[in-house]
Amino acid sequence: MNALEIRNVSKNYDRFQLEHVSLELPQGCIMGLIGENGAGKSTLIKAILDLIQKDSGEVLFYGKPLDSSQTELKEQIGVVFDSIHFHEVLTPLQIGSISALTYQNWDENLYQKYLKDFKLPEKSKIKDFSKGMKMKLNIAVALSHQAKLLILDEPTAGLDPIARDELLDIFLDFIQDETHSILISSHITSDLEKIADYITFLHEGKLLFTKSKDELLYDYRIAKCGEADFQKLKSENGAVWRKMDYQYEVLLPDGKTIEHNYPDCPFDHAKIDEIMLLYVKGERV
């Protein structure tokens, strides 16, 4: 079963269009949402959550339409943005009291457990927290109202490597219950390489692809070659390239198969940030 289905979602602004995006997130999985600044990631998340009015399309949560009238369904979605949405003079203890009035399925015992696990002092004001502590507080709230789906917009941005690693472990723990799923937008592609099952790539409001992370990391190749090999490689199916000072970089979606046909050409496994860079800045037939 799919935790989330996005069907033909579009949103038009004067200078930007999110165009007919469709994807499926299976339950028990983590999907990374990537793309350059302005690609449409935040617009898509807002459209999913019905925070903006869609021009077309629909969003399904476990097969049921998700819109502003579906309060019960929305309570099963935990949302974390890259900044805290609580007033900074509040304490975690006060936020728990507010959340208990907000969510029908609020679990105060679970919330207290997360505060303890995350080492968040319940009586300290949020303004005194580090960015990592604020993000953990956001996540503690999201996880304490029986959410089945987490939607995260740049949750690790600006955090040090240790804080980021702690959050990634939290996300992995969350999906150990195979009914739980995560959609995470991030510019830090190395984080997604650690935890994501699928990668969805938006570029200029268009969906370029949704693929399994393993396919990207194990099948895609980058060839760094001279003119002669480049002239052959650029005709391969799906090739994307960029001319550098002394060589070409050629991205090949089916590189695992075709590299054997070019024994003298050096190939490397492609990282997600390299794939994104070449699709955004590269050329293709």
What does this protein look like?
This protein has helices spanning 41-48, 71-74, 92-102, 108-117, 131-143, 161-174, 189-195, 213-219, 227-233, 255-258, 272-281, and strands at 2-12, 17-26, 30-34, 56-61, 64-65, 77-80, 149-153, 181-185, 198-203, 206-212, 221-225, 240-243, 248-252, 267-269, 283-284. With 285 residues, the protein is an alpha/beta fold. It has 2 domains: 2-211, P-loop containing nucleotide triphosphate hydrolases (Rossmann fold, 3-Layer(aba) Sandwich); 220-284. A 6-stranded mixed beta sheet has the order 6-7-8-3-9-10, with helices on both faces. A 5-stranded antiparallel beta sheet has the order 14-11-13-12-15, sandwiched between helices. It has a 4-stranded antiparallel beta sheet with strand order 2-1-4-5, covered by helices on one side. α4 (108-117) packs antiparallel against α5. The longest helix is centred in the middle third of the chain and has 14 residues, at 161-174. The mean pLDDT is 91.
Q: Whole-Å distance between the termini?
A: 37 Å
Low-confidence stretches: none
Number of strands: 15
The outline comes out as: elongated
Estimated structural class: alpha/beta
CATH class category label of the largest domain:
Alpha Beta
Strand content range = 25-35%
**Can you say what the CATH homologous superfamily of the largest domain is?**
P-loop containing nucleotide triphosphate hydrolases
Radius of gyration, whole Å:
21 Å
Helix content: 25-40%
What attributes characterize this protein structure?
elongated; Rossmann fold; 11 helices; six-stranded mixed sheet; 33% helix; alpha/beta; 2 domains; 15 strands; 285 residues; five-stranded antiparallel sheet
